[in-house]
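My current task is to audit a protein record that another person submitted. Thanks in advance; the entry in question is below:
***
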Amino acid sequence: MQLKIQNGVVELAGEPILSSVNFEINTQSKIGVVGRNGCGKTTLLKLISGEYKITKLDSDTDSFFAVSGKPEIGYLSQMTFEDDSITLVEEIRKAYSGLLELKYELEEAQRKMEIEQSDENIKQYTSLLDRFTNAGGFYFEKEYEAAIKHFGFSEEEKYRPLSQFSGGQRTKIAFIKLLLSKPDILLLDEPTNHLDIEAVGWLEEYLKEYKKAFVVVSHDRMFLDNVVNCVYEIEYGKTHKYVGNYSDFVKLKKEYAETQLKKYEKQQKEIEHLQSVADRFRYKATKAAMAQSKLKQIERMEKIDAPEKSDNKAFFTSFEPADIGVKDVLSVKDLQIGFENTLSTVNLEVKRGMRIGIIGGNGLGKSTFIKTIMGAVKPLGGFYKFGPRVQIGYFDQQMAQYVSEKTVLDDYLSEFPSLTDYEARSDLGAFLFSGEEVFKPVSVLSGGEKVRLALCKIFKKRPNFLILDEPKNHMDIVGKEALEDILLSFSGTLIFVSHDRYFIRKISDSLLVFSKGQAEYYPYGYAQYLDNQKNATVVQNNTEKPKIKKSFTTPAKEKSKRERLVKKAEEKIALLEEKIGGIKEEIAFPENASDYIKLSELQTEIDTLETELFTALEEWERATEELAALEVDKP
């Protein structure tokens, strides 16, 4: 399979969005797409999916979109639910429709073989078994169960109808189904947005093992580092390919620009020298031929273009707190946070200059903690207290939803009325609101622009304690790096919530981790936290099972005990086999043949019982071996 775009142009409403797309997807491509907000990344995905078409060119440029084979392309915007009355797990199992049909065929072949062990029946069963095994038939249920769990759905929610889920939850369900359907080309547009760190970790591992091709648009630098081996950057409407992950891309882009600049400057010096010789001797009869040869030499040169200046324009500021403040910034004692029920209990001592990153799963109380200490949510117990002279700069996720019919300039001046227009425009210009952009109504700004306006106001007040809840949402990578530079130069105190692991690792020097009703403080950064978690897992896995103390008993008692265990295991095996046989008979009833939901429920019950049967067989085998050993040791 191969999909190739050469010199592709995409225009929308007559306006060029992409001017030169050169892009290639092969069978197991793992591609990341990066670029500034609005550069055309989503447009590229829609072009690949077939939603957009390349524009036919009037020029002689060879432009085409070609696909070999008939690859299945999966894109989230195409995912819809046909029936809102079915449950979450039933919808997810649709991703395995082909595998479920194969499983049914395999069971039918097994029944035929049990009735008549002919060569034909055995051959058919063996063939189906190989296909089922190679397609992942013996682990697909564990796969979707893990996905549902890691995306934050409870055991109870698995059996709720789709109609009872919110828009955000429905998007997650569609996303899980898209991933598990395993299309030949998987297209993902900012897949880590709104996922907690645990879900992102599961997604990374899934994509690392993905056997087909995927293209992912993302501003999550650590995610790109972990899953892709090729990066396409879109800049000024053109695509540029770099082999490697995101870190490799950054390095290669810099090296390419430096090399290109050296080649360009070297050629320009050579051209200047040749032109100088030609100009000096072109009017001298004896030297005219030489002068002409120099000019022709310049004409024959394959001109090297100067490297385009990267689109790295970003907001900037540098400020120190107006008041350095006191040493004790915030004290939190047994603070119970939540609404009706307690989500977590927090204990924390914040000292001047600390940079605390708040992490944890969705719904555990990270943002609720921030809202509680800011007075927007009442605590359910405990208390918190700010130190004297603490001046807070607060950013929350809702600031990007801010609506006002005032212009950007008027909105800013209403908060700082003592400023002149020149001073206000100078401040706003540092946050990329220049020229006529300051006269835009706030209501028409993009999410990223509203975030920049909010940060401009916060930093202007020069607080000594920044409390930020997902401040880098709606930002592209250049914007994130600009915010990181500002925060790293800030000498005050910082607490922030983020799901961006790269951002957390770079900014925080300690962590507050929310997990299972508690918030635990770690006095070190994210890199050490990950190392400690990994080491703890290794130690736990390598820990020897505690030795069971031998009880002093007689051989007769030991034998009697083993005999009871064998008998108990045999009874359990017989009961489970009887239950499984009964359900298989029920599956064969004619009235159930077309009832997909009933068959699915019965098959799930069989799978559960077969797991129990396997465990019971292991217990019986172990007890039988121990009984046999006692017989051998008998004097």
